[in-house]
Amino acid sequence: MGERTIIPFGPQHPVLPEPLHLDLILEDEKIVGAVPSIGFIHRGLEKLVEKRDFQEMAFVIERICGICSFIHGQGYVQTIEAVMGVEIPERAKYLRSFWGELSRVHSHLLWLGLMADAFGFESLFMHCWRVREKVLDIFEETTGGRVIFSVCKVGGLWKNVDGDTLRRIGGVLKDVDKDIRPLADVFMRDYTVQKRCVGLGVLTKEEAFQLGAVGPMLRASGVAMDARKLGYAAYGNLEFEPVTENAGDCQARIAVRVREIYQALDIMRQCIEKMPGGEVATTVKGNPQGEYLSRLEQPRGEAVYYGKGNGTKYLDRFRVRTPTFANLIPLLHIIPGCDLADVPLLALTIDPCISCTER
Amino acid sequence: MAFNVIGKTVMKSLFGKPATAMYPVIKNDFYPLTRGAIELDPANCIFCNLCAKRCPTEAIEVSRPDRLWTINRTRCIVCNFCVDVCPRDCLTTVRQYTAPMTDKSAAVITVQGPAKES
Amino acid sequence: MDPQVFFPAVKTEVVEIAQRNKALGYRFAQMHCVKTPSEMFIIYTFEKLDLSIEQYRLPAETDGAVPSVSGVFLAAVLYENEISELYGVEFTGLALDFAGTLYETAKPRAFAEVATPVKKTPVKKAAAAEKTKVDLKKPAEEKAPINLKKPADGGGN
Hints:
Helices cover about 15% and strands about 20% of the residues of chain B. Chain B is of the alpha+beta class. In chain B, a hairpin with a 4-residue loop joins β2 (about 60-65) and β3. In chain C, the strands form 2 sheets. Chain C has a 4-stranded mixed β-sheet, covered by helices on one side. In chain C, strands 5-6 form a two-stranded parallel ribbon.
């Protein structure tokens, strides 16, 4: 039995986008256990439903996280629309899918940059984020904000995008596709990346399903579960298949996210082609009464939204189960057995969005 | 196994145009829809208080008898809810964001409306 | 949107329901607590590979004891710790117990008290507002039309 030491990891760490604390138990050089500690960014946002009426709550919910902000807003308004029985126009559904997929592209590009930074590949990090700037410019042009869009409301959308802008954006997206190809090539083929990532943090198919992993963590182990197949917003009319890999290690998760970027660009092209005309909002009268649970696919996995109304303009309860919350237990499962230098890579491979986890 | 796959991209970036603009010498334009800050045009304002009631962060305060409209720029999240609910369309969003300040008291802006007729 | 079905459950059969669902191929999706002035209950959601879900509603009360399903589904550990810390429900037989240190809120059982909604009233602070008044007679910088060709002016208001 070797000597055991405990090394703290985080909450301040150059590789973590948000604070997370792990107490790593090492035996000589290998890690044998990890004790997590979260709660650095718990703001109690779910309790604000008691003070903000259901239309204003959309602005609070989309500020849970900066990276996944649009889909949080979409999840909130979708749940409340289901509780109230409101049917939104088709164009609003297509625009929501469009912005959701654009969010996915920007989030995966951000994550790819952080992953490259985690194994020290800074030039790749900067190049990924440079491509991401084009996506953020599209956001600012269509919604007014680069990070927080404030564009979803109960009953539809606040802003419309006209046909000319959409066609021009289609051209920009083709440029983004062209710019990503050499970078994706580095992630998939480069010798240094393979040496660090292949065979690290293997999660088998049964383990991933039983431990509750969601999103690319789950799909990289061979389980084809994607909440977009439920057909919410316009996804029922768009053609796509969940992207899966079989190896279950870090390299497989990188491959899943890279292929999801291409898939998202393709889905956006379909959205622009099939976008119907019309307005983007319906008037909403009355207050929500009843409860509903809906599931959306965030870039990090499946997010569950539960809303309960009691007939007044203040909701009873709004609950957000974010994908990183579900991925924390698989993280604790894959850490034992690796070296100390691999911990940043493993912490990043679940795509941690801790500010989503503790709202 | 491929080596130095990033070489071609790095060379292109080294000899190509820089990706960033030389701020503060060259400033980039904002887009037409950019949400920078909220402004009031007091000529049409009826001081109905809808903007203050709907503000998610309680950044706006309206005083009807004194005809005053106050906004706290550091509390405002520029969500545009007030602009959308204003019945007289006197609120607009300007594209320039609020400049950083060293003194919190500079955050509160008050606008005096015209005196009530009759 | 299809209607949601919530099966009622009792404390004593929670573990049995979890074991039965596990045998049928469900996995643990999520669990949360709802507290209103009139009632309090916990909702369990189980999910299958084809994305179908089954939900159960279990009445609960603060300081009441509920058997934990973490023996069947390890994934339930984080959710049960969160509910016990924020709402004060006690779970017996937890596989991994954080003992109230998961979020470390300043006030224990922060979500267990349901506040009545606060109405926002217009505030009349004429005297204080005098100091911060902006004189609109002077041409302000923002009023000038923004020319798209020139770079934007620096500095705010």
